[in-house]
Protein 1
Amino acid sequence: MNLLVLLLVVAPAIAAEQHPPAPPIHEQTITVSAEALAGLPRVKVEAKEHDNPTATYEGVALGAILERAGLPRGEKLRGKALSAIVLLTASDGYQVVFTLADTDPAFTDRQIILADRKDSKPLPEKEGPFRIIAPSEKRPARWIRNVKKIAIKTVE
Ligand SMILES: Nc1nc2c(c(=O)[nH]1)N[C@H]1C(S)=C(S)[C@@H](COP(=O)(O)O)O[C@H]1N2
Ligand SMILES: [Mo]
């Protein structure tokens, strides 16, 4: 066997060893409700929107909801999962997208919270009952109010 043949045979085998096939993404839609948050670790963040005073929002990490729904995290978030998107829809039809990797603390320290409380009270009607808060984002345009659905989709 010459060197070229050896490389052609062995290199793909080594590559497969290091990168076993990524698990498929289970496309699904989660209805946002108290049950979707129940039992998950509570997170508190301080966030400032436009000229409003800084508020304390409390809820759960969006990533924790997705993890409980069976979506891959950390080392398993590979391959096709890196093109998976998290599409959030509000009662007024407003929609925003994050990527699945954006929601994983193995990838980023930037938090994305699904909040149900603001300054120790349920969210005001204009914002709630559930709102996304991403304190590290300088514009609050993805802090979608009245969020109703979380859809996980893969893009072609
Ligand atoms: N459901 C919903 N959430 C929303 C929006 C919206 O139109 N609908 N606007 C976004 C934008 S553009 C901003 S800047 C912030 C704050 O919007 P407000 O200033 O109208 O409260 O909410 C975000 N969340
Ligand atoms: Mo905005």
Protein 2
Amino acid sequence: MFDRWNDWKWQFANRITTTEQLKKILPLSDKDQQDIETCLGLFRMAITPYYASLIRPDDPFDPIRMQAVPSILETMPDANDLSDPLGETADSPVPYIVHRYPDRVLFLVTLQCSMYCRHCTRRRAVGEEDRPITEAGLRNAIAYIRAHTEIRDVLISGGDPLTMSTAKLEHIISQIRAITHVEIIRIGTRVPVVLPMRITNELTSMLKKYQPIWINTHFNHPNELTPEAARACAAIVDAGIPLGNQTVLLRGINDDTETMKRLLLGLVKMRVRPYYLYQCDLSCGIGHFRTRVEVGIDIMHRLTGNISGYALPKYVIDAPGGGGKIPVGYDYTISKNDSEVILENYRGDSYRYPQPAQ
Ligand SMILES: *Cc1c(COP(=O)(O)O)cnc(C)c1O
Ligand code: SF4
């Protein structure tokens, strides 16, 4: 029998995009339905049947539900909301490329995702159209990378690049790989979390041809660490592709030390290396997900030294207006002068490190 549940194209084609479909899996009051409809006028919804199956229907604050199902709070703008919170437009020399840091570029190859995360940074653009990059756009972007010999790292993102066919993706990756100054290619994707069946042999065999490739994914909660997700991550790592993770700190979802600890340790068990923990940015209609910065600093402070260093991501704020990622954290240096540095360890005890003469 054709195993449609494990077929990514079936999962993709059968995404939940309307309240009618959502009602079949979640109890929704008339008010809930109205609220979701109002929201859908602004931001679209798409939930893979797989990701929807992780929602506990009786819990309105279920962490999977909160990431997938629109909330009326999205329609209530916050005074600080920005439509381009990371100032990416200003750093885009040609369409589809964001060149902010000296040696690497972001290459946005599609606006399509398999699931539209409620907290998405690029939500204004993402999901607007389902078309991947045009041939002319691709030619132009590749020409830019080729002309800029300082680019040694190309980060393919979107949208989600793994929503494209393997052939289309290979068409893009092979052209990037042919540029001699590009040392590494990275792919940013949420597929291992929301559509793990997309990680097929066909895909990993293709990617293997273009090593070195790195992948970064986006797990936010331990409930996402399912056997299916573990299989997808293992297939990526077994293909020789280092797999990292970026988590967004989200109020009511993962903004407590215990949840974060379970997530980070669970990732390391799956051979996924926590890379960044992002402070939630100022994207429109996601103000209800933002925590105060002290919350993130406190979580990282409580975990540092108490769990494996491998499980600790770097906590960063992607500065509004295009400043890039800025690390924030607890300051373990109590004092520093010409002769000594006084340090605090993870237990709160202080230690002295004598400085060598200058
Ligand atoms: C995050 C980001 C990168 C990659 O940065 P790393 O710190 O190397 O992971 C590159 N370009 C842009 C515009 C980014 O936002
Ligand atoms: S997968 Fe990434 S780009 Fe797509 S909706 Fe989620 S956060 Fe946004």
Protein 3
Amino acid sequence: MTIKPLKNQFASDNYAGICPEAWQALQQADSGYATSYGDDPWTAKACDALRNFFETDCEVFFVFNGTAANSLALASLCQSYHSVICHETAHVETDECGASQFFSNGTKLLIVGGKDGKVDLAEVEHTVKKRTDIHYPKPQVLSITQTTELGTVYTPEELIAIHGLTKRLKLKLHMDGARFANAVAALQVHPKEVTWRAGVDVLTFGGTKNGMPMGEAVVFFDNKLAREFDYRCKQAGQLASKMRYLSAPWFGLLKNDAMLRHAGHANTCAHKLAEAVSAIPGVELVHPTEANAVFVRLPEDTISALRNKGWVFYTFIGSGHCRFMCSWATTEDDIASLANDINEVTKRP
Ligand SMILES: *Cc1c(COP(=O)(O)O)cnc(C)c1O
């Protein structure tokens, strides 16, 4: 039986395959025997590559996916009677099936609004201050997503303002960086400027959506917070015995800036797509395109016509508009072909 690859997809960056650098690193790591459970040279190299990337002596753990990375990171920052403040569209709130509550034994998520997927700081402050009594789940962490679920990017200035607030309100700061590489590529900054220097205590750094077969890194910038995190991973079923296959792609992708190059490519593709589709009458961008996602408002009949032509894309993210997501593997042809089809099926008055 031959399996036909899926064409016509802009559903998610996790539909893409494994990028060459990750594949090559896997092959390199696949050389004979190596110690298990992370005590191997490939994992050591990957941790060093991450410390180098962030220019600091951070603690690094590799887990299988983002849900585990986020919920274990949050659990490590909280007691069960604490709460975590996040945006109403945050992945931890809408797409993790309650995992952070589960792994933290009940820590509550408190949601706030905010334009284009970014937390409104006045709402965060109100959420912390409106109750100080013992009956309220004590606010402990602010969790933000970079890039946001709506494809926008917190600027260094915005992060400084967030840090000012979390310091004042004595909140820890967690960053869901499933698409952190896309943010760094978009902002053209040193990774440290938008993480530990901006007060981020823990980053969950996504590998899967940037060309790895699987895997996310949990990066603690405050090493005290990483205490016994290895036990937390093990108990949650997130300690890979053949760890080298989870860690080696990090080493491969951080070498020669491959990760930022792929992320930059995905971002460029999104900008090209946004430009092409926003020129079509009747098509409207609903959020600014700042990284690798393009959100557009399309009439229902256009959406069905595109789906009938075989295009795959999501309409359940955020406010329910169409999301077209680019990846390291997106091509100029993919973009031209989608823009062409949207143009063709959009009915003119
Ligand atoms: C994809 C994604 C994750 C990780 O999801 P998993 O499916 O658990 O790997 C986390 N946060 C955000 C914002 C994401 O887009």
